[in-house]
């Protein structure tokens, strides 16, 4: 929002699907609640369809606070017993670029056009329990104006009972106030134990951004998929009313269009609602290029009040009648009007297709030997790296460029022939999985030196796509004794 070149954006996601027209397929960046003239009028007349108690049946929403209760939405005393701890750390955003061999390399902020000003939007930090697809948001905080140098965060995490959470952060890349499922994210690799009054510090997170893709978007004026000025043969408008069925005390409501896998949004309209009855409502109007077939029309209310539409907010969907979801919506060549979105719906969770993390597990071995064959006092490392390692590297750099790592000293590996590891890495990205030995008798803090054993998980630079589910069985066999 600070960079005027980012204004007028739509989504990278819109490429191809709705790549038409020059107006607001999606909304303007930074247009929190304004969005031109698409919203006025018509909101009053629809009231009859939405009030009258049918939307206010409470029970479907307030299911014991298991939903997203880390936010500011006051679901009262419905959590009978809970524990709250605090997690702190620093979130840093870094660029990478891709070399001709398809490998990631670093690129310094100083070597980019944004050496003096952070070009992205806010950073959303969250703590979740459960696997992707069933995640519960247990705490969140937002860094509204991040800096190039990195920013501290402090987040309260509330759980029904003592437990462990994953802590991760998502960057609003185009500063449009909407966290899409394709937004870059970073992960603190360890699970964080939370008990009442517990404090964890140094839960540091790095978010990697694809420099080339961002530069292309930025240098094109930030127009995204809608900026090409191409024509749209079949413009279709989806319009109607979004109703918040809980007491509203602030926070925009957005109507958003996702694919049937809940990836997106591809287009949206975000408005500040007005109080109606016991809740609030706002009209919406979303333009797309038809026909696109079945899509999911969702609603979200910025219930945690951080200015972002994020997965920890209250979510809903288009309905056919109160409490009955009407997705998917078949979008062909005709406008669809009179649509009703109810927020929250069901348990109010986002259900978005976000896979923030997966695990890699496997073993480190010594080729044709055992760990006692290493030089005395050697140290063994395994690391899931953000970049392809290059020649020798200090262990300090190794840790800085690792999503996750594990270290074994002789006390850990004496008498062993195999060391098992379990590393947390972001989903849907690439990592470089390597093992190293810093050879004794006096390890010098540098690995991959001449004669030091190394191993990678495959011959292709150790590069592994992380995908959308945890994988196991990786074998790293340490080679090259001299
Ligand atoms: Ca965004
Ligand atoms: Ca929010
Ligand atoms: Ca060494």
Account of the 3D structure:
The protein contains four helices and 29 strands. The model is unreliable at 1-79 and 224-229 (pLDDT under 50). The chain is 5% helix and 41% strand. The strands form six sheets. Strands 10, 11, 12, 13, 14, 15, 16, 17, 18 and 19 form a ten-stranded mixed beta sheet that branches. A hairpin with a 2-residue loop joins strand 16 and strand 17 (324-325). It has three domains: 19-61 and 228-343, no CATH class; 81-224, Sandwich (Immunoglobulin-like); 357-478, Immunoglobulin-like. With 482 residues, it is mostly beta strands. The longest helix has 9 residues, at 211-219. Bound molecules: calcium ion (3 copies). One calcium ion binds at residues 438-439, 443-444, 446-447, 449, 452. The site of one calcium ion (CA) has 8 residues, from strand 26.
Core attributes:
482 residues, mainly beta, Immunoglobulin-like, 3 domains, ten-stranded mixed beta sheet, 4 helices, 5% helix, disordered N terminus, binds calcium ion
